[in-house]
Inverse folding.
């Protein structure tokens, strides 16, 4: 351990100073170091986006720099997920692992969906936690830190101040050619199994002009591909500044695609119930809209879909897919599935398998039903054994895998346009990019291509990802 770090230990600080941090002495010269924040993110892309905003807000207000090393952090934040039981339990075991860092003055905060659901109960279970804040109050972190220092007791703020958060965030900072932009918060669908409406509140759309301004700003910083985020993006209804008009999601897509610098537009997640003809038609008009849509179906049995309160039948889902493919034949479709919903019979499950067979998904995420406290489905009687549910999950996953593998193999030898994003995760000597249909392609190429749209010929299939060679014109 460096001397400076030892010095920091020798005089334990109960609380890190508000700004500028410790003055460490090296060879007699005072060197101001910035306080460091470690953020661990669980859950969906909305949490990934929010973690970026936490870093932005803390940098702006108190000069915090992000660190990947929890041992050197002055502030440790967990941005949590409560969508399934396992995700929730993970938070408490992780908290236990960093508790000892309080001895050298680190502060610990819990944000995100577990924080939103549990609130002060987190402090009761883990009294060493200093801050508990929800997805809608992350912009208040600097004020909460200040109060923590002044009052010397844990601070809890999990309120839902509507869209206030976006008015209190510094301009977005981005690294690399891709970025997430949140277009709405919350969800008002209340599917019977899901905690999200309780943890994130009801659907609230960000004003149209604010979304466009954020995207124009990041495009100026070099972003080429934007992913519009929301639990239900097709429910977007954004107030248009200076008028009484409201922009729907199809309108937003068309205008975002016109922003100078933006080459590709993605979004997640959309709901099959609100996948309107106007949205389908956007695939005809907006070339920059990628050839991929994540459209969670959850189940193939109408009886189970009704019990889940999804608001569509399996036939309606297939009809939406058919219309979409009529407009964009090459579109890749991915989905989410829940296996073992209370009362799911063997026959119901076979309907899910049949739906997968009928649609042909590019890839999908599938989960065993996890009863979530406070949701209607948690109190339904469930007679299927855990072993049976696991067996169904494995059957479903192997079918989905087999379909995905066949789609991968059909891409061998084809030329795909990728946006080069940066170093490959597995081999730092290679670069990676994504096809319009959302497949990762690894290539050997010069780093100067990062941020460029490049044609590659697919030469190899490796699991879900592909390898390719740059096509030289
Ligand atoms: N808003 C999206 C939608 O409606 O499909 C997805 C939101 S949710 C955060 C992501 C996925 O988690 C869902 O599509 C669903 O498959 C799964 N999920 C949600 N609640 C669950 C539960 N109680 N048990 C198991 N899986 C669940
Ligand atoms: Fe949850 Fe349903 Fe909302 Fe998706 S649409 S976030 S599954 S309540
Ligand atoms: Fe999890 Fe909350 Fe996202 S429950 S999936 S982090 S909206």
């Amino acid at each position: 351990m460096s001397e400076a770090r030892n010095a920091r230990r020798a005089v334990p600080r109960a609380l890190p100073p508000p700004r500028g941090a410790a003055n460490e002495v090296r060879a007699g010269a005072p060197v101001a170091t910035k306080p460091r924040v470690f953020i661990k993110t669980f859950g969906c892309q909305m949490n990934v986006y929010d973690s970026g905003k936490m870093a932005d807000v803390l940098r702006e207000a108190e000069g915090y720099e992000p660190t990947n090393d929890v041992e050197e952090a002055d502030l440790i934040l967990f941005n949590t997920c409560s969508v399934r039981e396992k995700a929730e339990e993970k938070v408490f075991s992780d908290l236990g692992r960093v508790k000892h860092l309080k001895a050298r003055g680190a502060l610990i905060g819990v944000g995100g969906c577990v924080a939103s659901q549990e609130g002060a109960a987190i402090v009761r279970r883990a009294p060493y936690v200093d801050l508990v804040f929800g997805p809608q109050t992350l912009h208040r972190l600097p004020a909460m830190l200040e109060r923590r220092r002044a009052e010397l007791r844990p601070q809890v703020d999990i309120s839902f101040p509507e869209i206030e958060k976006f008015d209190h965030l510094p301009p977005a900072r981005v690294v690399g050619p891709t970025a997430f932009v949140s277009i709405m918060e919350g969800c008002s669908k209340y599917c019977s199994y899901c905690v999200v409406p309780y943890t994130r509140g009801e659907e609230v759309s960000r004003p149209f002009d604010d979304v466009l301004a954020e995207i124009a700003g990041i495009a100026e910083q070099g972003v080429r591909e934007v992913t519009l985020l929301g639990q239900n993006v097709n429910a977007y209804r954004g107030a248009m500044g200076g008028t009484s008009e409201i922009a729907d999601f199809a309108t937003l897509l068309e205008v975002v695609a016109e922003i100078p610098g933006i080459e590709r537009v993605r979004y997640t997640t959309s709901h099959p119930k609100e996948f309107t003809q106007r949205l389908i038609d956007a695939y005809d008009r907006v070339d920059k809209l990628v050839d991929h849509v994540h459209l969670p179906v959850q189940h193939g049995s109408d009886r189970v879909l009704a019990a889940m309160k999804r608001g569509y039948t399996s036939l309606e889902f297939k009809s939406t897919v058919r219309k979409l493919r009529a407009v964009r034949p090459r579109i890749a479709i991915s989905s989410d599935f829940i296996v073992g919903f209370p009362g799911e019979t063997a026959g119901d499950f076979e309907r899910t398998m049949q739906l997968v067979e009928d649609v042909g998904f590019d890839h999908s995420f599938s989960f065993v039903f996890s009863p979530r406290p406070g949701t209607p489905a948690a109190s339904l009687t469930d007679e299927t054994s855990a072993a049976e549910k696991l067996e169904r999950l494995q059957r479903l996953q192997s079918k989905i895998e087999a379909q995905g593998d066949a789609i991968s193999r059909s891409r061998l030898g084809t030329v795909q346009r990728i946006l080069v994003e940066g170093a490959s995760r597995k081999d730092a000597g290679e670069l990676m990019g994504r096809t319009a249909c959302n497949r990762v392609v690894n290539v050997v190429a010069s780093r100067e291509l990062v941020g460029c749209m490049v044609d590659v010929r697919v030469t190899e299939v490796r699991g879900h990802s592909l390898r390719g060679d740059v096509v030289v014109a």
Q: What stands out?
A: Residues 301 and 348 are 5 Å apart (CA to CA). The mean pLDDT is 91. The first strand starts at residue 23 and ends at 26. DSSP finds 15 helices and 23 strands in the chain.
